[in-house]
Amino acid sequence: MPALTDLTIAGALAGLAKGEYSSRELTEAHLSAMEAGRLLNAFITETPELAIEMATASDARRGKGEAGLLEGIPLGIKDLFCTEGVLTTAGSHILDGFAPPYESTVTANLWRAGAVMLGKLNMDEFAMGSSNTTSYHGHVRNPWRGRGDNRELVPGGSSGGSAAAVAARMAMGATGTDTGGSIRQPAAFTGLVGIKPTYGRCSRWGIVAFASSLDQAGPLCRSVEDAALMLQVMAGHDPKDSTSVDLPVPDYRAGLGKGVKGLRIGVPKEYRADGMDGGIEKLWAKGAGWLKAAGAEIVEISLPHTKYALPTYYIIAPAEASSNLARYDGVRFGLRLPGETLDQMYENTRAAGFGPEVKRRVLIGTYVLSAGYYDAYYVRAQKLRSLILRDFTTAFEKVDAILTPATPTAAFAVGERMDDPIAMYLNDVFTVPVNLAGLPGISVPSGLSDKGLPLGLQLIGKAFDEATLLRVARSLEEAAQFTARPEGLA
Amino acid sequence: MSLDREAVRHIATLARIRVSDAEADALVGELGQILAWVEQLGEVDVAGVEPMTSVVARHLPRRADEVTDGGMRDRVLLNAPEAVLGFFTVPKVVE
Question: Measured in whole angstroms, how far is the alpha carbon of residue B78 from the centre of its chain?
Fold first, then answer.
């Protein structure tokens, strides 16, 4: 039998059901792995006592025949989700000591299904970043290393702690959030499956807000089936989030085996970036070949406004962030620095509490929303957003899903691209359009770079058609046979 | 559109973030670079295009106008850095 930490969620559920091991044993194995893997800095807060308590309760429920969909499965939670009574920092100094008196809807759904919390995962500050180097709690290390290259690599971001923990077998799965690629990019950098569902599929209630019209929660897992299982539980209508959609959540796992025969898969000619890794271009063609061999029809499509997605995003996301982050004022929660006047208190608190990338984005957002610039920047960006959505809507008249690379390169070294914000933003060139259009996207580990680092392909689906997306992802996963693991994990 | 140090200071005041002179000088370059990069949106003809203001719901759902929450003053104040006698406190704002 494989080590307990090597099991997939689906595999562990089967073993738990057969009584081969208890949730407590499974949880303890992961707590040991967390302890052994502390060098990765994946967790901001470990909650071992709570985990044991939840696992013990889970075993008792299972004993009474009351097992939920994720009964007994130990998970990590991105530190952007409010967890009742447990420190929630959003990776920022300004939320020092904040222990929410309430639980986010998504995590409440997971606990109701029987899952066990291992702790809170490191992330870029307020989910702003693509390398997990902007966290107040220090950068996260990618468990992967390049062949013949001993440099520390970034795990991607902003859900970098989630990605590192699941890739290093410290958690069976983890929650992430994705505003411009923050689930799919770290998943691609660490050899995981990461899905950002359709905007409105998961409730945003209790998730620290970054850009409200773009943020969505989703899982990072080691298989498509696991992602389907976790999404099943995380998704659903919530009256507490007026943008959460009241639609039934289909049984995602049930449809996974249907294959891709007869489906039309679009390949957009505009998804070729400057500086794109040659290996990724080859992998993309290979991926199309796999789906074709499995019975899908490959169709070339055009998404003509793709090149404008990133600059559009870097107006809309900072604008919304500047508004959302106005709440950090030193009065109601978190850090407070003294000041002679109320304004000085605000200014001192926010100067000390926010890191450089967050300040940049709050300032850009404030600027593009300010009198005299609102129409030129913000309204124009909203119009571009309409055009980007229209590109997808037109494409989806001809195809059922779209295949693209997930990222332009494999994971890069800690310290690279740090002095140029735009070079960092380019990481998300293939993922950002999906958030702007509100569509679901999934990153599937599909191959290795010439240095032996994981590379991901992205599939984009129609709104609320995660079922088809997961089904195509499963087909890709079967063909890719990605079995590589980070070095250092025997 | 290029920014100067005064413009950066003005934005920082609007955002209620104190910036030192050295920070303001660095931000002139950083913010200027980002703004110059987003200028490329100007080349797109957006005549007649409606701004996208909503991702999903065109009509916000309504609920019954009932009190569903409240009566939890102490929990609301639980995380306040300085709370006194059931209130948030701030520096004096009235002379």
Answer: 24
